[in-house]
Amino acid sequence: MVTLTKHMFKERMFQPDFELAPGYFIPQLSTVNQYLGYIHCLPSQESPESIHLHPNAEIAYSTQFSESMIASIQAITDLEVIQDIEGAADIYEALDATTGPTKESQVREICQSMLSTLPLPYDPFALSERLRALGSLKPIVIFLRQEIDCISKLLRVTKSVLTNLVDAIDGKIVLNESLRDALDAIHLSKVPATWLGVSLATCTADL
């Protein structure tokens, strides 16, 4: 903005043929009311071209704003997690019976379901033996080892987050910010940020 101001707002801006952008110029009027009328006729929201941005900038901004707003609306809950209260699980069961499944109880069920089907990480010793038999210095084997290491790390992180989420919902541990983000993401059928940080690159980001 400072660069744009220095470049555009000069004495030449008062010349009749000067335009800050197409349709944005200083009109040659005679009274204050005429200038006020001209100002009121300007668009309530400036186009990207008015500050020399590409037209697609408005599309990108609107998309990001909409996604942020929808995520905020979806994250609103009527019930906060009860922490550090003895018998928290029983409290949730009582609430489920009267008000229906809560966000936390739904996420807890998803976590338990995922934990029951989550494969175990690869055995590093058995893996080393198999890769050595294939030729550990071959480029394809090196690539395979890197992929397996990444998958094993992802499995460990996934299991850790799911286990900690169940414990936090049950009141056994504190629900920290990282777990809260994971809880919100799973509830919205999205991949938690902690998983994305160690996962393989992909063009999709949902469950």
Summarize the structure.
This protein has 207 residues and is mostly helical.
Explain what the structure shows.
- The protein is mainly alpha-helical and 207 residues long.
- It folds into 2 domains: 1-44, no CATH class; 99-206, no CATH class.
- Helix content is 58%, strand content 0%.
- It has helices spanning 2-8, 32-41, 56-75, 88-99, 103-117, 124-134, 139-169, 177-187, 193-196.
- Helix 5 (103-117) runs antiparallel to helix 7 and helix 7 (139-169) packs across helix 8.
- It is elongated, with a radius of gyration of 28 Å.
- The two termini are 40 Å apart.
- Pfam families: Dynein_C.
- InterPro entries: AAA_lid_11_sf, DHC, Dynein_C.
- Residues 94-199 form the Dynein heavy chain C-terminal domain.
- This is Dynein_C domain-containing protein.
Instruction: Bin the helical content.
Output: 55-70%
* Rg estimate, integer Å: 28 Å
Annotation field: number of helices: 9
Overall pLDDT score: 79
- How many discrete structural domains? 2
Q: Which percent range describes the beta-strand content?
A: under 5%
Biggest sheet architecture: none
Give unreliable regions as ranges: 78-87
Order of helices and strands: HHHHHHHHH
